[in-house]
From TrEMBL:
<keyword id="KW-0627">Porphyrin biosynthesis</keyword>
<dbReference type="GO" id="GO:0005886">
    <property type="term" value="C:plasma membrane"/>
</dbReference>
<dbReference type="InterPro" id="IPR029039">
    <property type="entry name" value="Flavoprotein-like_sf"/>
</dbReference>
<dbReference type="GO" id="GO:0004729">
    <property type="term" value="F:oxygen-dependent protoporphyrinogen oxidase activity"/>
</dbReference>
<comment type="similarity">
    <text>Belongs to the HemG family.</text>
</comment>
<keyword id="KW-0472">Membrane</keyword>
<dbReference type="Pfam" id="PF12724">
    <property type="entry name" value="Flavodoxin_5"/>
</dbReference>
<dbReference type="InterPro" id="IPR052200">
    <property type="entry name" value="Protoporphyrinogen_IX_DH"/>
</dbReference>
<dbReference type="GO" id="GO:0006782">
    <property type="term" value="P:protoporphyrinogen IX biosynthetic process"/>
</dbReference>
<feature type="domain" description="Flavodoxin">
    <location>
        <begin position="5"/>
        <end position="152"/>
    </location>
</feature>
<keyword id="KW-0288">FMN</keyword>
<comment type="pathway">
    <text>Porphyrin-containing compound metabolism; protoporphyrin-IX biosynthesis; protoporphyrin-IX from protoporphyrinogen-IX: step 1/1.</text>
</comment>
<protein>
    <recommendedName>
        <fullName>Protoporphyrinogen IX dehydrogenase [quinone]</fullName>
        <ecNumber>1.3.5.3</ecNumber>
    </recommendedName>
</protein>
<keyword id="KW-0547">Nucleotide-binding</keyword>
<keyword id="KW-0285">Flavoprotein</keyword>
<dbReference type="InterPro" id="IPR044264">
    <property type="entry name" value="HemG"/>
</dbReference>
<keyword id="KW-0560">Oxidoreductase</keyword>
């Protein structure tokens, strides 16, 4: 059976949840291995037919370790069937939920030497009760500025699962 490596750079877990959904869509065609890319310094690229990296935005930035991973594995990523998506709360708004409309994807394209053909962006989730006080206050402030949910007792999932399914199909046919 073919093998796919699903790597994540995630803080709160929504990116992993999206990758698990993609993994279930690939079932039957691919054996998937889901790994935190921060814990995987060496990749045996020959083991995998495809690679997918999902990364979350935290306070406006992708994790620096993601960029380091890309730089350290650039030639392998360029030679592999590989794709990328990022997860952020801004993507909950129409027009900000596409690679072309996402400020974070534009920033990724500018900062990353790796430019995969298949890219996407998905809305994340708010998990106020799970956040530490500092994060909760900061996220509330950001959400207030952007017209989002500010009730600290709520958990809201903004991910468009139909878009994730469509992306899964495009990744499968890469």
């Amino acid at each position: 059976m073919k093998k796919a490596l699903l790597l994540h750079s995630s803080r709160e877990g929504q990116t992993v949840k999206i990758l698990r959904s993609i993994e279930s869509e690939l079932a039957g065609n691919y054996e998937c291995e889901l790994v935190d890319l921060h814990d995987m310094p060496e990749v045996n690229w020959a083991e995998y037919d495809k690679v997918l990296i999902g990364a979350s935005i935290r306070y406006g930035h992708l994790n620096k370790k993601l960029y380091r991973f890309i730089e350290n594995n650039l030639s392998a990523l360029n030679e592999t069937k590989a794709a990328f998506f990022c997860v952020n709360l801004t993507a909950r708004k129409p027009g900000k939920d596409t690679p072309e409309g996402s400020v974070y994807m534009k920033k990724f394209r500018k900062l990353s030497p790796w430019q995969p053909e298949l890219q996407d962006v998905f809305a994340g989730a708010l998990y106020y009760p799970r956040y530490k006080l500092f994060d909760r206050v900061m996220i509330q402030f950001i959400m207030k500025m952007t017209g989002g949910e500010t009730d600290p007792t709520k958990e809201v999932e903004y991910t468009n699962w139909d878009r994730v399914k469509d992306f899964s199909e495009r990744f499968r046919s890469l």
